[in-house]
Amino acid sequence: MVFAVIKGKNICTPEGIREGFVSIQDGVITGFDTNLPPHLKREAIDIGDSVLMPGLVDPHVHLNEPGRTHWEGFATGTRSAAAGGITTLVDMPLNSSPVTTTAEAFDKKAAAATGQLQINCGFWGGIVPGNDKEIEKLIEKGVLGFKAFLTHSGIDEFPNVTENDLHKAMPIIARHKLPLLVHCELTTPASSQTENNERSYKNYLASRPAAWEDEAIALMIRLCEQYQCHVHIVHLSTANSISQIKQAKEKGLPLTVETAQHYLYFNAEEIPDAQTAFKCAPPIREKANNEQLWQALQDGIIDFVATDHSPAPPALKEVESGNLMKAWGGIASLQLALPVLWTAARQRNIPVAGMAKWLSTNPAEFSALKKLKGKIARGYSADLVVWNPNKKFIVTADQLHHKHKLTPYLNQELYGVVEQTWLAGELVFDKGNFPAPNKGKIITLDTP
User: Fold this and answer.
1) Number of C-beta neighbours around residue 388 at 10 A
2) What is the distance between the alpha carbons of residues 260 and 414, in angstroms, rounded to a whole number?
3) What string of DSSP letters covers 106-150?
4) What pLDDT was estimated at residue 448?
5) What pLDDT was estimated at residue 42?
6) Rounded to whole angstroms, how far apart are CA atoms 363 and 373?
7) What would the pLDDT profile of 256-286 be if each residue is shown by its tens digit?
8) Burial of 131 (C-beta count, 10 Å sphere; 0-12/13-18/19+)
9) pLDDT band for position 196 (50/70/90)?
10) Whole-number Å distance between alpha carbons of 78 and 64
11) Which superkingdom does the taxonomy of this entry point to (predicted)?
């Protein structure tokens, strides 16, 4: 039996930040104690004043393998995740080739991941027009839920669904009590009329107005109520929808919501023209809007924060041309999930415990992992992160393990240095080193 004890002054337990000892046996947390026998104290790994927190769970990651591994892949993506304190991620179905919309495609995805995972990885299945007959086959394979787009995904093989498509898919998903994750933008031709300056961020922002998102969310709330299907709104960027989301939750509808770090850290007023590293969809909006997102997160209307890590080669990001209208919309940020959120949170006097709630506990519960991940408590997986909230660093390309280093966080000064990442009681990241490579496993609904 493999046994270990971690001693710390700032252990993030469900009861709050406490000093004590966390015992681990065979990859599982066996207890938290404020005192231990002398011989166990001597053997304890002392992390001092650093924070011990449940490993991060990121349910919104684009790893793109197989087929687009030159964008990102399981090896580089999960390595960067481990370096950022993430112990479980869930991979999106659309950027691989084939897209994960059939059982056959799922098998190819799982085969590509095998032997390459630095951390644990689950998968979402995709909903596209005409694949409703594949939904239960994908469930049998072990997908944790499904993802759909209401506007063009950027990938031609993954077309957006219509309301009619959702009427077919949602009863099946509801019957199996799985979530349907939805990219909520309803494109209307009239709102895409903007000035002809493709390098202007103001122009790009105007080309994807908040109304697109608000109307799409209203549609999904209506369908959520009709079918009692768990609907999850991904990367909420518009504060206009907070009220309707709040009302839906107060009615008891099975609705959850995430936002992303970039909507909480950056503001449109500060984004220079032609800087395509900032392009994402929906776009980063104005400061007044984003402050309301912060308040909704603190009020529990927004459930958690996920990166939507979606890198692409520099040519696709139109780095040289600066064409924001043409560039791939996606932000590379997986490794920086914790320090970015913490840097912005500490400016608002939000305590460290908020990081555990928004980056670990709540996303684990959403991803059907609530009995396994996201808490430092007896019986939970010993997936842990050790980090120093008081240390700061400047983001440089050579620190990043993503396949492509282009990110809007380059040269930003961030607080929160990740020192160690533990996966099932084994140290997989240790101050820049990876002492136990490829220990990650594929997570399915049947994972014990």
Assistant:
1) 17
2) 17
3) HHHHHHHHTT--SSEEEE-EE--TT-GGGHHHHHHHT---EEEES
4) 65
5) 87
6) 9
7) 999 999 999 999 999 999 999 999 999 999 9
8) buried
9) confident
10) 12
11) Bacteria
**For residue 406, is pLDDT > 80?**
yes
Q: Which pTM value belongs to this model? A: 0.97
Residue 104 identity (one-letter amino acid) = E
Residue 191 pLDDT greater than 60, yes or no: no
Sort strands 304-305 and 255-259 into parallel, antiparallel or unpaired.
parallel
How many Cα atoms within 13 Å fall on the side-chain side of residue 144? 26
Q: Answer yes or no: are the C-beta atoms of 80 and 397 closer than 8 Å.
A: no
Query: Which amino acid is located at 256 in the chain?
Result: T
Distance CA 431, CA 58 (A): 21
Residue 231, Cα to own-chain centre: how many angstroms? 16
> Quick one: 377 exposed, middle or buried, by C-beta within 10 A (0-12, 13-18, 19+)?
middle
Asked whether 347 and 413 are in contact (CB, 8 A), the reply is no
Average pLDDT, integer, range 129-148? 97
Residue 447: its pLDDT value, please?
76
Total residues found in the chain within this entry: 448
Among residues 255, 257, 221, which one has the least CA distance to residue 238? 257
Range 156-174 average pLDDT: 98
Asked if residue 48 has pLDDT above 70, the reply is yes
d(CA 46, CA 316): 46
Helices 287-298 and 242-250 meet at what angle, rounded to 10?
A: 20
Q: What is the C-alpha separation between 140 and 326, in angstroms, rounded?
A: 38
What is the Cα Rg of the chain in Å?
21
Sheet with 180-183, strands from edge to edge, namely: 125-126, 146-149, 180-183, 231-233, 255-259, 304-305
Sheet holding 56-61, edge to edge: 56-61, 86-91, 120-123
Kindly state the tokens that stand for 417: 């240095």
Residue burial 202-218, b: 16+ Cβ < 10 Å; e: rest: ebbbebbbbebbbbbbe
Q: Kind of pairing, strands 16-25 and 3-13?
A: antiparallel
pLDDT at site 446:
81
